[in-house]
Amino acid sequence: MVSLNIKELLAKEPLSQEVTVNGWVKTFRSNRFIALNDGSTINNVQCVVDFEQFDETLLRQINTGAALTVEGILVESQGKGQNVEIQVKDITVHGGADPETYPIQPKKHSLEFLREKAHLRVRTNTFAAVMRIRSALSFAIHKYFRENGFYYFHAPIITGSDAEGAGEMFRVTTLDGKNPPLDDNGNVDYKEDFFGKETNLTVSGQLEAEAYAMGLGKVYTFGPTFRAENSNTSRHLAEFWMIEPEMAFFDLDANMDLAEDFIKNVIMYILENCEDDLVFLEKRLLDEEKSKPQAERSEMALIDKLKFIVENRFKRLTYTEAIDILKNCKPNKKKKFQYIIEEWGADLQSEHERFLVEKHFKCPVILFDYPAKIKAFYMRLNEDGKTVRAMDILFPGIGEIVGGSQREERLDILKEKMAALDIPEEELWWYLDLRKFGTVVHSGFGLGFERLVQFTTGMGNIRDVIPFPRTPQNAEF
Ligand code: 4AD
Ligand code: MG
Question: For residue 63, how far is its CA from the centre of ligand 1 (angstroms)?
Answer without folding.
Answer: 44
